[in-house]
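User: My collaborator sent over this chain with a note saying "see what the structure looks like." That's all I know about it. Can you take a look?
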Amino acid sequence: MTRYILTRLLSLVLSLVAASVAIFLVIEILPGDPAAIMLGVNAQPDTLAALRAEMGLDQPMVIRYLAWVGGMLHGDFGTSYTYHTPVAKLIGDRLAVSLPLALFSLLLTVVIAFPVGIWAAARRGSAADTLIMGITQLGVAIPNFWFAMLMVVLFAINLRWFSAGGFAGWDKGLLPALKSLTLPAVALALPQASILARVMRSALLDTLSEDFVRTARAKGLSRAKALRRHALRNALIPVLTIIGMQFSFLLAGGIIIENVFYLPGLGRLIFQSISARDLITVESVVMLLVFAVILVNFLVELAYALVDPRLRSGR
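Assistant: Without extra context I'll predict from the sequence alone. Here is the result:
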């Protein structure tokens, strides 16, 4: 088990180093000079040079990369060119919206997908199974932003149960804040729940055909008990993989939903920073999201070891 964890930790560190280099190089080759954008087309050359020196843009690329990475290791993400605010504070403020939204969406995804997938697998070939698979196929096909706009029309404009956009803020109380995140969370969760339910059904059906399940049935267990006691745990590895990928998507890929509902999250911050050519903010936010994705994958691999004893024994 220790060797398994150390191997995964080494893979995590190497992935982070490779990701930081790739992000820095991609951002650096983008056209446009942040200093020129900030000062406008009529900026004087000496003023432009002074601003570039102040922003550190006159330093060699390697020096800037090392300074950026070294700052992040100490919790210093630099200062935003556009907002003139520490990037760490910007990220903290926006993460207070994006992270609860991702967790809320993931919770809805699991709560919906697990019962639906198990129900469909237990009734393979029935009318209920066919209906569930048809609905989940529709959920996979519908874009979440289009579904989000439909919910705004129905629940915000017509029924007036929720606001059409914006975030109440955690200082207003837990319930108003969660109410602001409900429609975005549902819009993000339903397509992901459709995917997860289909994966759960397929994994359970594959496991139910294994010899150990047939042996349990031969000993007198009903199909439902064999599914709950033996098949479900062994079917969790592909399901855990999808859950890890979905959390990463919900945290990093909610930019469209955040713009539909005007949520001040990380997605909108990236969009606004790219438009303003705020390189340091874009680099830091993207690196944070990449770190979250890699960390989630690492935790999922540790969960594999808890589910599958063969990994703990090194087999």
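A starting point for your reply to your collaborator: The mean pLDDT is 80.
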